[in-house]
Amino acid sequence: MKVVLDTNVVGKLCHPTNPKNKAFVEAFLPIVESGNVEIYLPEIADYELRREMLRMLVKDKGWQVGLSRLDALKSTLSFLTIDSEVFLQAAKNWADAKSTGKKTGPDEALDGDSILAAQAMSVGGKIVSENERHLAIFCEVLAPQKFLDEAAKIV
């Protein structure tokens, strides 16, 4: 199984001591350690989370811990970069969704969801996300708990 993590899931991993994230992180780590599931940290999710953490860091130096965890994930998981092919697919995703009346965001927005979907498509992966509504337009999406359940069968 190949999965690409959405920003909301990466955020959980960067804040493992938050009581809302603890169970997910504890179940996630053995999956990573098993090596039986290809888990990708997409560049678009890194960007979306990093920019927010950097903004918050100006007000509260405690965000440095989250940034350090994000950097560690970048070296632990397979980092999925954005290249020209991904942008071409993202543009097609966006245009297809708009032309069929499916709203993924404001027309003038860069639309990270179409980029994330293109990154998942580039490796033939499913997206692990709490945002199924926008992403399922493009490819298969697994809610975090469903991912854990499916991955546990492989591990």
What is the compact description of this entry?
With 155 residues, the protein is α/β, with parallel strands linked by helices. It has one domain: Rossmann fold (3-Layer(aba) Sandwich). It contains 8 helices and 5 strands.
Describe the structure.
The chain has 155 residues and is an alpha/beta fold. It has a single domain (2-154), classed as 5'-nuclease (Rossmann fold, 3-Layer(aba) Sandwich), CATH 3.40.50.1010. Helix content is 63%, strand content 11%. It has helices spanning 7-14, 19-34, 43-59, 63-76, 84-99, 112-123, 132-135, 144-154, and strands at 2-5, 38-42, 78-80, 126-128, 141-142. It has a five-stranded parallel beta sheet, sandwiched between helices. Helix 3 (43-59) packs antiparallel against helix 4 and helix 5 (84-99) crosses helix 6. The longest helix has 17 residues, at 43-59. The radius of gyration is 15 Å and the shape is globular. The chain starts with a strand and ends with a helix. The mean pLDDT is 93.
Major sheet strand order: 3-2-1-4-5
| Helix share, percent | 55-70%
CATH architecture: 3-Layer(aba) Sandwich
Calculate the mean pLDDT score and round it: 93
